[in-house]
What we know:
With 93 residues, the protein is mainly alpha-helical. It has one domain. The chain is built from 3 helices and 2 strands; from the N terminus they run H-E-E-H-H. The chain has helices spanning 4-9, 39-49, 51-72, and strands at 17-20, 27-30. The chain has a two-stranded antiparallel sheet with strand order 1-2. Strand 1 and strand 2 form a beta hairpin. The structure holds zinc ion.
Amino acid sequence: MGKQPEILENVRRVPLLKKQCPQCRKEFHGQPAKKFCSVSCRQKFVYYAHQEERRARLRRGYYAAKEKKAAKRPAPHGPGRRPAHRGLPPAEQ
Ligand SMILES: [Zn+2]
């Protein structure tokens, strides 16, 4: 994008402004409302901006699923499931 913006400045109704992309810090020419140099940079910015939020949500889902799975399974030494008897056989009377 070397000479193109200069040519377009005479034709465009919406002027192209010289801007800096907040994601990659690259300079580019864009319309007043445009903030990022590319779609890729906009998506990266949103991805990193909501990183903690997304991780917290995934963490919550992970622990919820884990708890649900643990509730289904009987306790390891509970009444439903006893460890195999490995000592001496019960004394005969
Ligand atoms: Zn960029």
